[in-house]
Structure formats: structure tokens, C-alpha cells
Design goal:
Largest sheet: 2 strands, antiparallel
Strand order of the largest sheet: 1-2
Order of helices and strands: HEHEHHHHHEEHHHHHH
Structural class: mainly alpha
CATH topology of the largest domain: MetI-like fold
Shape: globular
Distance between the termini: 33 Å
CATH architecture of the largest domain: Orthogonal Bundle
CATH class of the largest domain: Mainly Alpha
Number of domains: 2
CATH superfamily of the largest domain: MetI-like
Length: 299
């Protein structure tokens, strides 16, 4: 009986495992293997594919464009994570409170979740266009600026920070915020209201209740959210690619876009795989630290 039960469970998860194997694990392993080959798509038919070891990683890591994209990846991921978590905590409180019209507010906050990132990026390209941006028109009507801001083409920078980078970060925050808000709202609703009532009787302020009740009890949820945001942030592609293509002057270029450019612009699948391997290593380190923390917590 136990064997039949286990067999049924394996049969139920088998389709998902096969899809994950075919669309996830096999392409990942193939890409890692290519990163150790001399794989120029233009010359592959005549020159073949030869094993070169770590040479592709040395070439990629010595490329200033990849180093810049790696710095941009880290900077944008940290900025998106910090802003999304901070705004998510605020909006989750708004959604968790009881007031008239709460359903409408919840719908508006979650609306970006129903817009695919590709569509959202295309809409924001128009919204941030230098000559046709309604944001520029609004800011000029308010007297805050004298001329159009070049949200996606301004080449003025302050180290890794620039207006195009900030614009892309804002769109990524807008698109990813509902996911975090839903997670945090679910965590808040699992906290007993009796704890807040007891704290109010003891004279705790709103900030005190948030600091000593909400935050400590949301730590498990926040840990999962931070890990997911870091992993997806390091591998993020679509919004950066559609909005700026990595420009101007690689100011918004990230590792995933760099890998795409190497593969489909220059046909160097070996360099693209090596760049992807670096991203894979970064995300693996995050996963290892998270798993170790969970094991320590369980012990």
C-alpha cells in the first residue's frame, strides 16, 4: 500500500520534473559546457568546437564592458530590492488596514502584476520618451523643470548612477512591487491581532508595534523575498533590454543583456555562456547562504 502511494506521488510530480529537466536543467548544463569551448557560431562549421578550459572566463572578466555590466547588475539589484521591500512594507500595511474602498486600493496596487514585463517596458519607453513624455509635460507645467529630461538617453553619470539607470530601476520596482506586497500581506494577516491590541494597551506607538511585532514576525517572509529578489535581479533581462538595450554607453547594461549581445549580436556563444556562468555562480552563492541559514535555524 505504501509503495502504491509513493508511486502515485511520483507520477503526479513527474510531468513537472520532466518540464523542469527539459527547459531548465538541460539548457543550463549545456550552457555551462559551452563556456569551456571555443564556440564561434560563424566559424563553428569549419573550425569546430575545441575545449579551451577557463579561457572564456578570463576573456569575459577582462572585458571592461562585462565588468561594467556586472557592477550595474549588482547596483540595480540592490536598489530594486531595497525600494521594493521598503515600499512593499508600506503598501502591505495600507492593504491590511480596514477602511472603505479597500478593495479598490488593493486592485490599483496589484494592477502592475497583470501587465507582462515586456508590455510594461514598451509602455514605459513611451512614457519616458524625451520629446513625447507626459511626465516631462507634467513637470514643466508644475514649473519643476525648464526643458525635457532625457530619461533613457542622458549620458551624465555619477559613478554607476545615472538618470537612465534610475529610470529603469523605477520601472522594475513598479513591475515587481505587487508580488512583494502580496507576500508581505499574507505574512501580516497571519499575525494575531491580539498582539497589536496588547501592545496598544501597553502604550506602544504605531512605529513601536511595527518595530517589535510586525518586523520580527515577518523575518521568515522577508528572508524568502530578499533571496528571490536577489536571484531574479542578477538574472534580470527583459525590462533592461527593451527599454535601453543596455545603453546609453552601457549605463544600464546588465550581465544578462551582455550575454545576449555576445550570443546574438557577435555570435560568440562561448563568451555568452561564460557570462551566464558568472551570473549562475553569483545566484548559487546566495542560495547556499540561504540554505545554510535555514539549516542553522532548524537545528
Amino acid at each position: 500500500m505504501e509503495l502504491r502511494k509513493n508511486l502515485f506521488c511520483y507520477l503526479m510530480v513527474a510531468p513537472a520534473l520532466l518540464i523542469t529537466l527539459a527547459l531548465g536543467i538541460v539548457p543550463m548544463v549545456t550552457s555551462l559546457w559551452w563556456s569551456f569551448l571555443d564556440y564561434d557560431l560563424i566559424q563553428a562549421e569549419t573550425a569546430g568546437e575545441t575545449f579551451v578550459g577557463w579561457r572564456n572566463y578570463q576573456v569575459v572578466l577582462s572585458d571592461q564592458r562585462f565588468v561594467t555590466s556586472l557592477v550595474n547588475t549588482v547596483v540595480m539589484t540592490v536598489m530594486v530590492m531595497a525600494l521594493v521591500v521598503a515600499l512593499g512594507l508600506l503598501l502591505a500595511h495600507v492593504m491590511n488596514a480596514k477602511y472603505r474602498g479597500r478593495a479598490i486600493v488593493r486592485t490599483l496596487i496589484c494592477a502592475p502584476w497583470f501587465v507582462p514585463p515586456v508590455v510594461a517596458a514598451a509602455i514605459w519607453v513611451w512614457m519616458l520618451d524625451t520629446d513625447r513624455s507626459p511626465i516631462n509635460a507634467l513637470l514643466m507645467d508644475w514649473g519643476l523643470i525648464d526643458g525635457n529630461l532625457r530619461f533613457l538617453t542622458d549620458t551624465t553619470d555619477a559613478g554607476p548612477l545615472s538618470l537612465p539607470l534610475a529610470s529603469v530601476v523605477a520601472v522594475r520596482v513598479w513591475n515587481g512591487l505587487p508580488f512583494v506586497v502580496i507576500f508581505l500581506l499574507a505574512g501580516m494577516q497571519s499575525i494575531s491581532r491580539s498582539l497589536y491590541e496588547a501592545a496598544s494597551i501597553d502604550g506602544a506607538s504605531l512605529i513601536g508595534r511595527f518595530r517589535y511585532i510586525t518586523l520580527p514576525l515577518l523575518k521568515p517572509v522577508l528572508g524568502v523575498i530578499v533571496m528571490l529578489l536577489l536571484i531574479t535581479g542578477f538574472g534580470h533581462f527583459e525590462i533592461n533590454f527593451i527599454m535601453t538595450g543596455g545603453g546609453p554607453q552601457d549605463m544600464t547594461n546588465v550581465a544578462a543583456v551582455y550575454a545576449y549581445q555576445q550570443a546574438f549580436n557577435f555570435f560568440r556563444f562561448d563568451y555568452a555562456s561564460a557570462a551566464s556562468g558568472v551570473v549562475f555562480l553569483m545566484t548559487s552563492v546566495i542560495c547556499i547562504f540561504y540554505i545554510r541559514a535555514q539549516i542553522r535555524k532548524d537545528k
